[in-house]
Every structure is written in C-alpha cells, then in structure tokens.
Design a protein that fits this description.
The protein is an alpha/beta fold and about 525 residues long. Helix content is about 45%, strand content about 20%. It contains 20 helices and 15 strands. Helix 3 links the parallel strand 4 and strand 5. It binds adenosine-5'-triphosphate and (2R)-2,3-dihydroxypropanoic acid (DGY). The site of adenosine-5'-triphosphate (ATP) has 26 residues, from helix 6, helix 7 and helix 17. Adenosine-5'-triphosphate binds next to helix 6, helix 7 and helix 17.
C-alpha cells in the first residue's frame, strides 16, 4: 500500500512541476506592454501593427496563444510548426488556455510525428523562411522557440533530402549522441539552424523567446540555435561522424553539403588571425536579435520541491543537469536510494556497507561534498520521521542497439529497478517504501505514448512471476513493452503531449515502513 501511495505522490509531483512550466506563465513574465511600447528584458520596441510570429517546438502552441493575448492587433501574421496531434491532445485534456483562437492570424501546421521531420514540418519551415525574408527593418519578428524545435524546423541544404536528414539524425540519436553533438551536425546540414533564421530575417528586429530544454540553457543548442551565433565548424561534424563510426553509413549528400560548407567564405581562415570569417558574418546578422531564455527545468524543480514539502516530505535537490548514459544513471539512482536507506537505517552507527555504497557513488560521478550534505539532511529528516524526496533533472542518452520500444526515461527506470532488485539482497531496502520515477516533461519518451515510468524494489519480482526477465527487455531496448506488461501498465506514466518541454525529471521518494 505504502509503495502505491508513494507512486501516486510521484505522479502528482510530476504533474505539479508540469503546471509550473506552462508556456503562458513564462510568456507573461517576459513580455511587458505599455501603450505602444513592448519591453522584453532591457530592450524596448515600438509596436505599430508590425509583429510577425514564427514558432517551432513542442511548447510553442501555448506561447503563440499568450503572445496573441498580449500583442492583439499588432500581430500581422505568423506560422507555427507544432507536433502532430498536439491540438487534439490539448483539447481532450481541457487545456483550452494553450490553444490560439479560431480567428488567430498565426497559421498552425502540425507535423514531425515522433520527433521525425516530415513533409508537413518541411512546408512549415519553408513558409517560416518566406515570412521572415519579406520583413524589413521596421518589422518585429517574434520567434518562439522550444525543445523539439530542431525536428519541427527542418531545412536540409540541397542536395541533402528531408529523408536523408532524418536518417542521419536518427543514426546519431540511436548511437547515443548528446543533443549538443546532434545539433552540431544539424547546424551544418540545414539552412535555418546555427543562426540561419536570423540571417533570413535580417534586417528585421528579431525577438527570440526561448523555453530551454538543454542542460545549462546553452542558446546555441536549443532547437539548434536558429537565432544565435554559431561557433561550431563542418570539421567537427566530420569528427563526430567518425567517432560514432558513421562515416561509411551516411548518405553521400552529407559529404557534399559539409564539403561545400568547409569551402565557403564563412569557414575560410581569416589571414590576419586564427578566427574564421564566419564569426563576423554571423555576428552581423545576429546584431538585430534579442535572445531571451524565458524558462527552464529549474522552475519545474522548484515547484516540485515546494509541493513535496507541502505533502510532508523532507526535500533535497540533487541536480538540474543529469546527463550521461541512461542505463548507468539508472544504476546510480538505485545506489543512491540504497545509500539513503542505509544512512537512515544505520542511525549514525558505523556501517561498512554505507562506506562501500559511498565509494560506488563517488565512482559514478557524485561528489563527496554532495553526499555529505545529503547524509546530513536525510539524517535530520529521519530524526523527525519525515519521508524523503530527492529531485533531479536533465537529459540522458541511450545507445539503442535492440529493435524494442522504449525511451531514455523508461530505460533508466528499468535499469534502476534491476539494480534495486540486486541491492534488495542487502536487506535494508525491504524496510523502506520507495519509488523512483523518471519522465520527460514533453509527455513523450522516445517514440512511445508514455512520458516515462516509475519503479519500486518489488517490480522485478512481480515481473518474474509473469515470466518476464527484465534484463532481456533492457538489452533489447524494449522497456516500454516491459512496463506495459507488469501490473497492467500501472508503473507507466501517461500524460499525453503536455504542451511544454524542459527536459526530463527524476523523483525519488523514500519512506520507512512502519
Ligand atoms: N527503444 C528505445 N529505448 C530506449 N531509448 C530509446 C529508444 N528509442 C529511442 N530512444 C531514445 O529516445 C531519445 C529520442 O527521443 P525523442 O525524439 O523524443 O527526443 P527528445 O530528446 O525528447 O526530443 P527533443 O529534445 O527534440 O524534445 C533518444 O535519446 C533515443 O536514444
Ligand atoms: O529541438 C532540439 O534540438 C532539442 O529539443 C533541443 O532543444
């Protein structure tokens, strides 16, 4: 019973954190209007029925809606490239405040099912390019960007085709490339990325409002930095393809595009310095651009912490930038759960297994100071009989080798569950109710209909009773099938597309069994 209560709490915490990152709230905090003056951060713009909206990403539909509420008749026209099915999902969840009015001047184009660029998103990207290209210096181009923007703004440089672009990005993603690596390649294979949109919009005044889904909020990589100056090079793309052993697999046109780009003026060495000409060309086009990050996972984490506190948990924020291999991170979280249980169980008495646990965690990248602090707070919570809530967030990667269905969150949770099952042998875990949840705030983990999954220390044993061997599902990247089968799929978290996107959240809840 206790475990089910914790699982429900974890789902609630996740939903609360989603609410805190609704695009509407963040847009209202960022755009201020007084008379005909629009203020965005420290910049002001004169409004004169001169605003053109272009938007792309999983969270931009709600951003468009709020921009319309704020700017009203100043909006002339607009195009938004949004994920397939998002309007009907938002309607079915009653999220009317995310939906632009039927008389909206912004044309919504749905595309890129499962984050794969398609003809619809290609058309949206072409229309976006056309719209910004016709804008002059008195026009304001309001660019609304969120994660998923790369797939929703495909602009392959000929002779590369849309299909070939998809193939290359999927190959890299499945090999476990980070979003920075993936988007480095996209920036050199596509026209509108890496500052390309800013270039097309020049000389208009460009305001980019960006909801971050990238660790450390690096502008250059969110949706492949369409309005920010790029500092990567075609050579880096060759190196990446080589490192991932893909040089012999990618289509010939990839080499054509990268080679052409290497030879272009932008990348020729400036004879006077080691800098490339590219920097000055790009900074020229970006000088009219005001890029503003309007929100990130820190907001989501803080609201979850607050809610956990109101439920009576003692809370601790572990990290807002969890990266690395999902399977390894899953093991790390399991060890961390065990470490916390041991810390509480040992009541400050010498405990050799605790020392070993700490050593393992240090080995997996957690810092000594962090573990000391964690021990201290957990002991305090235990002394006043508080259950514990640890939160983390970020984006991991998976080296997909199998043919199964899954996503990085479900993969991580399955890996954690396997490790917890092994740790159960040490006997301390059985004295605590625990839940571990990892889920994507966009509501879609990989190409599945689940946002993520949760587990406790009994999951693997339950699966074994059904003749399901968790290790096999992990090896074949089939975590979704696994979670769908155990306990009638109750460990899966299904939110539908959420209309926001600030990476993934991890939630650990631990409570002593009374
Ligand atoms: N069967 C699978 N098992 C585990 N992970 C998978 C599987 N298939 C895909 N993935 C992982 O899912 C991720 C891609 O999912 P998706 O396209 O939804 O990315 P995303 O990061 O959520 O998108 P964006 O950042 O653009 O919003 C990659 O990390 C990929 O390795
Ligand atoms: O669209 C993308 O490139 C990713 O979501 C990172 O922003």
């Amino acid at each position: 019973m206790e475990a089910v209560k914790l699982r429900n709490h974890a789902f609630e915490l996740f939903n609360v954190s989603l609410k805190s990152v609704t695009p509407c709230t963040m847009m209202l905090n960022s755009l201020k209007i007084s008379g005909n003056i629009l203020s965005v951060g420290d910049q002001s713009y004169v409004l004169n029925n001169n605003v053109h909206i272009v938007a792309f990403g999983k969270a931009v539909i709600g951003m468009v809606k709020t921009a319309e509420d704020i700017l009203g008749d100043h909006i002339v026209d607009g195009i938004a490239s949004i994920p397939s099915g998002i309007q009907s999902t938002l309607k079915s969840f009653g999220k009317w405040d995310f939906l632009p009015s039927v008389t909206s001047k912004v044309k919504l184009i749905e595309g890129s099912t499962n984050n794969c660029p398609d003809e619809n998103s290609l058309r949206a990207a072409q229309e976006i390019k056309k719209l910004v290209t016709k804008c002059g210096e008195n026009d304001i181009v309001l660019v609304l960007i969120s994660g998923g923007g790369s797939a929703l703004l495909p602009s392959p440089t000929p002779p590369l085709t849309l299909q070939e672009l998809s193939t290359v990005t999927q190959m890299l993603s499945k090999k476990g490339a980070t979003i920075q690596q993936l988007n480095t390649v996209r920036k050199h294979l596509e026209e509108l990325k890496g500052g390309g949109l800013a270039k097309a919009a020049f000389p208009a005044q460009v305001i980019s409002l960006i909801l971050s889904d990238v660790v450390n909020n690096d502008l250059n990589f969110i949706a492949s930095g369409p309005t920010s100056q790029d500092f990567t090079t075609p050579q880096q793309c060759f190196d990446l393809l080589e490192n991932f052993d893909l040089l012999n697999c990618v289509p010939q046109s990839v080499f054509t595009v990268l080679n052409d780009r290497s030879q272009s003026e932008e990348f020729k060495k400036d004879s006077e310095s080691e800098h490339t000409l590219k920097k000055s060309v790009a900074s020229f086009h970006c000088r009219n651009v005001h890029n503003v990050i309007i929100g990130s996972n820190v907001i989501a984490l803080n609201s979850a912490l607050k809610y956990a506190d109101s439920l009576g948990y003692g809370t601790y924020l572990l990290s807002s930038s969890v990266t690395g291999d999902a399977e390894e991170r899953g093991q790390m979280f399991a060890l961390l759960i065990n470490y916390i249980c041991r810390t509480m169980y040992s009541k400050n008495k010498p405990d050799q297994l605790l020392v070993k646990n700490e050593f393992d965690l240090l080995h997996r990248g957690l810092e000594k100071s962090q573990l000391n602090e964690l021990c201290k707070v957990v002991t305090e919570y235990d002394q006043c009989s508080k259950p514990v809530c640890i939160l983390a967030a970020g984006e991991t990667t998976v080296n997909v080798v199998g043919q199964g269905m899954g996503g990085r969150n479900q993969h991580m949770v399955l890996s954690a569950a396997i490790e917890l099952n092994k740790l159960l042998e040490t006997d301390v875990l059985s004295k605590y109710a625990i839940t571990f949840l990892s889920a994507g705030t966009d509501g879609q983990d990989g190409p599945t209909d689940a946002a993520g999954a949760s587990c406790d220390q009994t999951l693997i044993k339950q699966a074994l009773k059904l003749n399901l061997k968790a290790e096999d599902f992990l090896r074949t990247n089939d975590s979704y099938t696994f979670f769908s089968k155990v306990d009638a799929g109750r460990y899966l978290l299904k939110t539908g597309l959420t209309g926001t996107n600030v990476m993934d959240l991890q939630i650990i809840l631990i409570s002593p069994i009374s």
